[in-house]
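Incident review: delayed structure delivery

Summary: a single-chain prediction request sat in the queue longer than the usual turnaround. Root cause was a stuck worker, restarted by the on-call engineer. No data loss occurred. The affected request and its eventual output are reproduced below so the record is complete for anyone auditing the incident later.

Affected input:
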Amino acid sequence: MNTQPTSLSNCLCIWQQNAHKSHAAQQYIINSANPADWDIIAIQEPWLDKLGNARASGYWHILYSSSCLLSDSSISRSILLINTNISTDTYTQLQIPSNDIMTVHSLSHSATCRFSTYTTTAPTMTPLLPSCPSSLPTTTSPSPPSTIL
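Output delivered after worker restart:
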């Protein structure tokens, strides 16, 4: 259960970074991100060990793409690290059929959907939007390569 409130309870502070599959770069991100300052770390092209697992400190919950966990492929091009100060019952991971897209629906931050994508071509968000609650506003897709948060 969450015992320490985040510094800004009305907004989320998100660090987005491409680690380029580098263990050193990912460790730098994790060690540099002060949990008192950041709520979510979105890492594209994360370093994964030989078992397909990412690493993080005890201050972060690691979320992998939902299809990565269900398929035989351990290739995940996007992971989210959620601050352990954010109670796990205040957000849910939405099921998106892609290893490149992470989606979290926050119930405590104005019912928002957070997308973290890794793309090399123009993303097609239209088929994915029904996974988000209908009360959320939709956004248009930016030109590639890009990340949507």
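Verification: The helical segments are 23-32, 66-70.
Action items: add queue-age alerting; document worker restart procedure.
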